[in-house]
Each structure stands twice: as C-alpha cells, then as structure tokens.
Amino acid sequence: MAQKTSIPKGTRDFGPQEMARRNYIFDTIRQVYALYGFQQIETPAMENLGTLMGKYGEEGDKLLFKILNSGDFLRGISSDDLQQGATGHLAAQLCEKGLRYDLTVPFARYVVQHREELTLPFRRYQIQPVWRADRPQKGRYREFYQCDADMVGSDSLLNEVELMQIVDTVFTRFGIRVCIKINNRKILSGIAEIIGEAEKIVDITVAIDKLDKIGLDNVNAELRENGISEEAIEKLQPIIQLSGTNAEKIATMRQVLCQSEIGLKGIEEVEYVLSKLTDLQAQVELDLTLARGLNYYTGCIFEVKALDVEIGSITGGGRYDNLTGIFGMPGISGVGISFGADRIYDVLNQLNLYPKEVTTDTQLLFINFGSIETDYCLPILAKARAAGIRSEIYPDAAKMKKQMQYANQKQIPYVALAGETEIAAGKITLKNMQTGEQTLVSPQDLIAKIKE
User: Fold this and answer.
1) Residues 6 or more apart from 278 whose CB is under 8 A from it?
2) 399 CB neighbour count, 10 Å cutoff
3) CATH class entry, domain 12-166
4) What 3-state class would DSSP assign to 179?
5) How many angstroms separate the Cα of 150 from the Cα of each of 40, 59, 112, 236?
6) Nearest Cα to 367, choosing from 289, 438, 311, 287?
7) Are the C-beta atoms of 411 and 361 separated by less than 8 Å?
C-alpha cells in the first residue's frame, strides 16, 4: 500500500488562486515600502548558528530549527556524549547552521558584513520566509513569511513615526481596521526599577507580554515562579491594569516613574511619536503590557491587532540600539517593523476583502482543432499576450467537449474558435462562456472586446 503523502505540521501548500492573493499582499506591501524610500535585499534561508543563537532569548533559542552538518555529522562525537544526551552541547557539535528565526538578526549581520557598501541611514525591506519550531495552532505556523522594513544608522524618532504611517497606509489599502499598540522598553525598565526588580526585567517583560493570552492570574503566577517578590507583584498590578486615554496614561506614568530616569526617557519618546500620529486612520493605543519578548528591543515597540478578526498580532516591531554591536559594530541604531503575511492572508480571507481583479487566471482560451487551425491561431495568440491578455491554447486537438470542460473548470471567461469558415474570412469566433454569446470578430476586435 502506497504511503499517504503529507506535509510537516505548521506548513501549508498554496494553489494558484491562493498564490494570486498572497502576491497581492506582497505587492501591496512592496509598493508602500518603495513609496517611503526603502530598498529590497535578500539573505540566505540558513545562517551560521552562531549568528542566530543568543539573539532571541532562551525561549527563542529553543525554537530555532538547527541543520545537521553534512556528511558524517557524528564524527568527533563520543559515545559518552550520546549517552548523556546533553542536548545543547550535542547541538553545538552536530549543527553549524540553522534556519533563520526572523529577518532582523540576519539583517544586522548583513549591515556589519556590507558596511562599506551602504549609505547610512540605510532603509531596507525584505520579504522572505522564516522558520520557528513552535507548536502549530490557529494563526501560528512553523514556516511563514515576514515582510520587514528597517532603518539603520539614525536615532531620530521620525523613523518610528514613518513606520507607523507605513502600517496605516498598508492596512488602509487592504481595508483592514486595526489598532496599533505602542510601548517602550525604557518604560518597562523603569517599571522594573521602581518596583525593586531591575535585574528581573527580562522575566517581567516575558510574563506581562502574555497577559492577553493567559490572563492576569497566570501572569502573576509566572512572575512568582521567576522569583519576583510579592511586594513587587503587588506594585505592578495597577500599572499593568492602567486604563484611560493615551494622555491620561502618560500623565499617570510620568508620576509613577518620577524617580526613574530611564522610565521618564521612555515616556518622552512615546509622547513624541504619539503626537505625530494624530492624523492616522488606525487607532493608536499606549499599552503598558506590550513587551515584545525579543531581547534586542531597546526603545519604542509596536504591535498591530486586527479589530474585526480574532487572531494574534499581524504586525510588530521596535527600536534596537545594540543589535549590530554583537557582530562587532557598536553604535548603529535601528528600528523596524514586520508584517506577518500569513496572518494578513487569513484576515483578508475571513473578511473577504480581496479585490475582484486579484487573479492570474487565464482570460482567453484558443480551441485546438488541428495543425492548420493552430498555425492560424498562434499569431493571434501572440498578439493577445502582447496586449496583456492572459491567454493559452489547448495543447492537444482533443474533442470539443473536453476542451470546453477544461475552460469551464478553469473558469476561463472567453474562448476563441477558428475553423475553416473563420480562417477563410480572416476572423475568429469569440465565445463569452458566461452568457454563451458568440461573435465573429477580427483579431483586433477580439483583443479590444476582452480588454473592455
């Protein structure tokens, strides 16, 4: 019995219609990036494991797909190593490369490696797949596309403002109502400082970032498990449950963080960005629980949620001041965003927001009656394609019924037929497959009718 074929969990196949829709997403984002002066690059699917490890925190390192060394990958591994099963130690010996977890760390490596070729500040965008060994669930995949835009070589907060304008422009074009959530890692550091747990900033941010997913009680339980004192947890409660307008939250937090220099700096940065975003169509909300679990963020952080669909964040990003420093080039600041194309695809599907013209389907099929008729049709077919009409000719001189079934199954709107009569007259019969109407037309009129 033949083995049943399948694909790995957390991955998907995409057929022609799905790819047309996905390309609509990629093309829309690409066009907006170009409007704001970004240039496209690509990096390899795999990076040296040393490039990736330690950049995403302990949880992120666990989700890296590691690639076994080529050839005899067990060479140099002792039987004691295998029996002890020290996973981390073995992985370091067995795997020199890994699939990229995101596009930001490879971009930082790219900047360092190609520094002499770049004009700073450098605006780049990148649309490529990434891989995470995560547990597959609704809206979460092991292989998915990210559509990143980053600005490096500038500390200006105008960069953050422009990125939020890009987010607004993209989702306005898609017709998706969204809420942009903003916070600042300096604010979070200030909070950790004033509750007396400055050294636990990573544990605190990882826990409170899960508030929407696991609820307040579970967040507090995780904080306790990570050694956060009861007194600190109690001080944290009114902060992470703070409500009101952005202005009210800023006013309250300015008082709460009055003794924290770094916290007040974060408030100042958020206030500046918010003050420049008053004309966006999207909602913009200061969310003090937004933490973005990745360790490399140092300033403003962003997350975008769809308002009409229950799904995780569909865009995220933030400021990172130290990322290139880990590759030997300190002092280059950057800020970026990443659109989650797969989740946007799911949102557009659920809300049925694709334009009708989003298709790459065939518009015109030439029926094949034999070699003489084919020779007559081929130049007309070439002219139709030159005019931008997606056209094809049935490859075999099959029965008429079979060729018409093919057209119906592919939902081709027009069929062109040329027999002895049409050839003698220098014309062609054009059939509208929806109405059944047939018209004898010249090759020029055929093209004009379909273009209409």
Assistant:
1) none
2) 9
3) alpha beta
4) strand
5) 11, 24, 14, 33
6) 438
7) yes
Give pTM, 2 decimals. Answer: 0.84
State whether the Cα torsion 291-293-296-302 is positive or negative. negative
pLDDT tens readout for residues 22-58: 999 999 999 999 999 999 999 999 999 989 988 877 7
| Greatest CA separation for the chain | 94
Domain ranges of the chain: 12-166, 364-451
**CATH code assigned to 364-451:** 3.40.50.800
Helix (H) or strand (E) holding 7: none
Residue 322 contacts residue 363 (beta carbons within 8 Å): no
Residues paired with residue 432 on neighbouring β-strands, in sequence order? 414
Residue 279 DSSP symbol: T
Mean model confidence pLDDT for the chain: 89
Q: Residue 302 and residue 277: Cα distance in Å, rounded?
A: 13
Which amino acid, one-letter code, is at 314? I
Q: Which of 116, 129, 147 is nearest to 40 (CA)?
A: 147
Rounded-to-integer distance, Cα 323 and Cα 57, Å = 13
Determine how β-strand 300-306 pairs with β-strand 178-184.
Answer: antiparallel
Each residue's pLDDT tens digit, 261-317: 999 999 999 999 999 998 888 899 999 889 876 567 899 999 999 999 998 899 999
pLDDT tens, 398-422? Answer: 999 999 999 999 999 999 999 999 9
Least-confidence region, from 103-107, 367-371, 377-381? 103-107
Tokens (6 digits) for 400:
């008429």
Model pLDDT for residues 149-201, shown as the tens digit of each residue: 999 999 999 999 999 999 999 999 999 999 999 999 999 999 889 888 878 87
Only one residue has tokens 């140092």, namely 298
Radius of gyration of the chain (CA): 28
Structure tokens at 59: 């949880």
Looking up tokens 């002066």, which residue turns up? Answer: 37
